[in-house]
Design goal:
- This protein is of the alpha+beta class and 251 residues long.
- It is elongated and about 85 Å long.
- It has a six-stranded mixed β-sheet with strand order 3-4-10-9-6-7, with no helix packed on it. Strands 1-2-5-8 form a four-stranded antiparallel β-sheet, with no helix packed on it.
- Helices cover 43% and strands 25% of the residues.
- Helix 3 packs antiparallel against helix 6 (115-140).
- The chain has two domains: 14-140, no CATH class; 146-250, S-adenosyl-L-methionine-dependent methyltransferases, CATH 2.20.130.20.
C-alpha cells in the first residue's frame, strides 16, 4: 500500500481574471454612472476591494502593482459603459447635437462623427487599452514552472498511514516504538533536493539523488519526540523552487 503525498494548485489565467474585472466595472458603471468623472472614485474603491480579496499581501510591490491594474481596468470598464450610455442618449435627445455643434477642436470633430463611428471608436480604444494592460501583466507575471518533487510513505519504510491537519498540511503516522524510517521520493535529473527539520537538527541538508532523480533518505527518530516537522525543497536552474512540508507523528 502506497501512501503518496502530493499537492495540486490551480491558477486562474491572468488574462481571464483581468477580463472579468473589466466586465464587472462595465456592469457596475452601466447601472450607476452617467458621467466619466463619476467612475474614478468608485473604480478606485472597487479595484482596492478586488486586490484585498484576490492578491496576497506577502509581496507589497506585487500587491500594489495588481491593485493599480485592477483600478485601471475597472475605470476602463466604466468608461466603456458610460460611452454606451452617452450614445444611447444621443439617439434619444435631439438637443445633444446643438450642444456638440458649439464645441471646438477635437470635441467638434467628435460631434461630427456618426453614431456608428463613435461606437466603433469607443470600443476599439477601450479594447486596445485592455490588450495593452493584459500584455503588460503577462510579461510581468512569470509562468509557473516548478520543479517536480514527489514523496511516498509506504509501510515497508516505517509509515502506517497519512492524513491532513485542519490547516491542510500532511501528517504521516509511525509506530510509537519506531526509531528509524526511510523517506523515499523523486525529483528531476540535475535537481537539488534539501531537507530541513528543526526537530531533528537538520538544516538544508542535501538529499542524494540517483541518475533517475529518485532518493531514499534515512531518518533517525528520537524516542522522546512525538511529532516532527520536516520540509523538503527542490531547486533547479531555470525552474521555480518546489517545497513540501509535512509532519511525522508517533501513535
Amino acid at each position: 500500500m502506497d501512501i503518496t503525498g502530493s499537492s495540486n494548485v490551480y491558477y486562474l489565467s491572468p488574462a481571464y481574471l483581468l477580463i472579468i474585472v473589466v466586465l464587472i466595472g462595465f456592469i457596475y458603471h452601466l447601472i450607476r454612472n452617467q458621467e466619466y468623472k463619476n467612475t474614478i472614485l468608485s473604480s478606485t474603491i472597487i479595484g482596492i476591494i478586488f486586490s484585498v480579496i484576490l492578491v496576497p499581501i506577502d509581496d507589497l510591490m506585487y500587491f500594489l502593482l495588481r491593485m493599480g491594474m485592477f483600478v485601471v481596468l475597472v475605470i476602463f470598464g466604466g468608461f466603456l459603459a458610460v460611452g454606451f450610455k452617452k450614445l444611447r442618449i444621443m439617439n434619444e435627445t435631439e438637443n445633444f447635437y446643438e450642444l456638440e455643434n458649439k464645441l471646438e477642436g477635437h470635441r467638434k470633430w467628435w460631434s461630427d462623427q456618426s453614431h456608428k463611428s463613435q461606437t466603433i471608436t469607443i470600443c476599439i480604444t477601450s479594447l486596445l487599452g485592455i490588450v495593452l494592460i493584459i500584455s503588460a501583466v503577462c510579461l510581468l507575471t512569470p509562468v509557473e514552472n516548478p520543479v517536480q518533487l514527489d514523496l511516498e510513505f509506504t509501510p515497508s519504510n516505517g509509515f502506517i498511514n497519512a492524513n491532513y491537519t485542519d490547516d491542510g498540511e500532511m501528517i504521516v503516522f509511525i509506530a510509537n516504538n519506531t526509531t528509524q524510517c526511510v523517506l523515499t521520493g523523486s525529483s528531476e535529473a540535475n535537481a537539488t533536493v534539501t531537507i530541513t527539520s528543526n526537530d531533528l537538527g537538520m538544516y538544508n541538508q542535501t538529499v542524494p539523488l540517483d541518475p533517475d532523480g529518485n532518493f531514499a533518505y534515512n531518518l533517525d527518530i528520537p524516542q522522546n519526540v512525538s511529532i516532527i516537522k520536516i520540509s523538503l525543497e527542490a531547486t533547479k536552474p531555470g525552474k521555480d523552487n518546489r517545497s513540501i512540508t509535512f509532519f511525522i507523528k508517533k501513535q
